[in-house]
């Protein structure tokens, strides 16, 4: 189910913080360097105010500038790592990823949904399997990752429709599902299976993870090289281990 946050009382709202974070989020792979005018258009903040925010973030060390363009500095990832260092989920999940990773010979993950993406907040796997999965902190569209599909499978039919409608699906491999119908077919109840959606010859299997309250808090998955193993055999090997971790995490949460 899609979380719906209640409105925040105006007396608790800090507009400057909201705008500063919107400025940082305006930078992405398609817009790594922004002028004040471009940042203004991308955020909806006036150009004058945008320049003040850009200059302040530059002063604080989160941006650099040549006087015209601005770009993010290596200080920005500190905001991410503060989450990894302090959040409950990554710490609670990490011990439960080792067993499926070692037993299956792949990389095991825990990911959470952030708007339209999943973010990988815990990972276990040797360097030998690094090339079949995601680095810690990676963000990817939910429809491209088994964890994302597993979480989407817990949505109501109405919420799935809302999530899918009007969405653009970018192909990352010849096998990527790029239509609403094709993505909808990936969403099923119980567990998720994705093959070659982002990288060829890579298979992802995932199950959603719930807290005692029944709320879905994320999903646990494994990324496996496909080699010559059949889909049925991979699922029969992986699913019991993922279910075991799922039940253990239900206790933890």
Characterization of this structure:
With 253 residues, this protein is α+β, with helices and mostly antiparallel strands. The chain has two domains: 66 residues, Arc Repressor Mutant, subunit A (Orthogonal Bundle); 174 residues, Beta-Lactamase (2-Layer Sandwich), CATH 3.30.450. Helix content is 39%, strand content 20%. The chain has ten helices and nine strands. The strands form two sheets. The protein has a six-stranded antiparallel beta sheet with strand order 6-5-4-9-8-7, sandwiched between helices. A three-stranded antiparallel beta sheet has the order 1-3-2. The longest helix has 22 residues.
Task: Lay out the secondary structure.
Blueprint: H1 15-25, E1 33-34, H2 36-43, H3 47-59, E2 63-65, E3 70-72, H4 77-86, H5 88-93, H6 98-104, E4 107-114, E5 117-124, E6 139-141, H7 146-152, H8 157-164, H9 180-186, E7 192-195, E8 202-210, E9 216-225, H10 231-252
Antiparallel strand pairs: 1-3, 2-3, 4-5, 4-9, 5-6, 7-8, 8-9
Helix pairs in contact: 2-3
């Amino acid at each position: 189910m899609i979380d719906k946050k209640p409105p925040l009382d105006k007396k608790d709202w800090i507009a400057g913080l909201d705008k500063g974070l919107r400025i940082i989020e305006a930078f992405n792979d398609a817009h790594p360097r922004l002028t004040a005018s471009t940042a203004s258009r991308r955020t909806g903040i006036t150009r004058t105010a945008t320049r003040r925010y850009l200059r302040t973030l530059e002063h604080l060390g989160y941006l650099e500038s040549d006087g015209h363009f601005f770009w993010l500095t290596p200080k920005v990832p500190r905001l991410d790592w503060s989450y990894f260092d302090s959040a409950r989920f990554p710490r609670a999940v990490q011990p439960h990823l080792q067993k499926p990773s070692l037993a299956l010979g792949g990389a095991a993950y825990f990911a959470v949904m952030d708007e339209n993406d999943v973010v990988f907040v815990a990972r276990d796997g040797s360097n030998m399997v690094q090339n079949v999965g995601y680095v810690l902190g990676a963000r990817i569209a939910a429809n491209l990752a088994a964890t994302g599909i597993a979480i989407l499978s817990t949505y109501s039919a109405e919420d799935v429709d809302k999530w899918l409608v009007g969405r653009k699906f970018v192909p990352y491999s010849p096998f990527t599902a790029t239509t609403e119908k094709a993505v909808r077919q990936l969403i099923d109840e119980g567990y998720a299976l994705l093959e070659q959606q982002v990288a060829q010859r890579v298979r992802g299997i995932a199950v959603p993870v719930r807290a005692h309250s029944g709320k879905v808090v994320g999903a646990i998955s494994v990324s496996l090289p496909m080699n010559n193993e059949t889909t049925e055999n991979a699922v029969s090997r992986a699913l019991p281990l993922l279910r075991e971790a799922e039940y253990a995490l239900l206790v933890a949460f």
